[in-house]
Design brief:
With 148 residues, the protein is an alpha+beta fold. A hairpin with a 4-residue loop joins strand 1 and strand 2. Helices cover 43% and strands 18% of the residues. The protein is built from 7 helices and 6 strands; from the N terminus they run E-E-E-H-H-E-E-E-H-H-H-H-H.
Length: 148
């Protein structure tokens, strides 16, 4: 499988514990990180405003990192943005593609779409229609029940 590389390009602190994050693919998302220190003790320092605002891009655009070395990878940040935006359709599509280790081309071929359409579904540029969600589930079901 060819890796889907959508790296972080810029990060800008907003009010509270929110960041505006730009990706190399052109997407700009807003992510609220306020629940992170509550769920994971390793992110406790994020509660300090000056520390939180020190977020920077690291690892050649693959992670957001804070001064203590803790960070999140670009894919997880995108998933958080999709979750917060109520984009369960896009999240389910991304997880289907990743679970089955499908490149954009392979995913497009599997469900009869163009590579461009699959890319737009994956990034959230277009909502994923219910018929596509069902096609993904059907494709998986066929693979599970296919003779060995």
């Amino acid at each position: 499988m060819k890796a889907q590389v959508n790296r972080l390009q810029a990060v800008k602190p907003l009010g509270g514990m929110a960041l505006e994050i730009s990706y190399t693919g052109g997407q700009v998302v807003r992510v609220d990180f306020s629940e992170l220190p509550e769920r994971l003790a390793v992110f406790a320092d994020l509660r300090k405003p000056e520390f939180f605002r020190a977020a920077a891009i690291a690892d050649w655009g693959h992670t957001i990192e804070w001064p203590n070395g803790e960070g999140l990878d670009a894919d997880r940040v995108m998933e958080m943005a999709l979750e917060q935006a109520g984009r369960a359709d896009t999240l389910a599509f991304r997880r289907w593609q990743e679970r089955n280790r499908l490149s954009l081309n392979d995913a497009a071929h599997a469900i009869g779409l163009t590579r461009r359409t699959v890319s737009q579904y994956r990034t959230g540029a277009r909502p994923v229609p219910r018929t596509v969600t069902l096609a993904c589930k059907g494709w998986e079901a066929e693979r599970v029940h296919a003779p060995a």
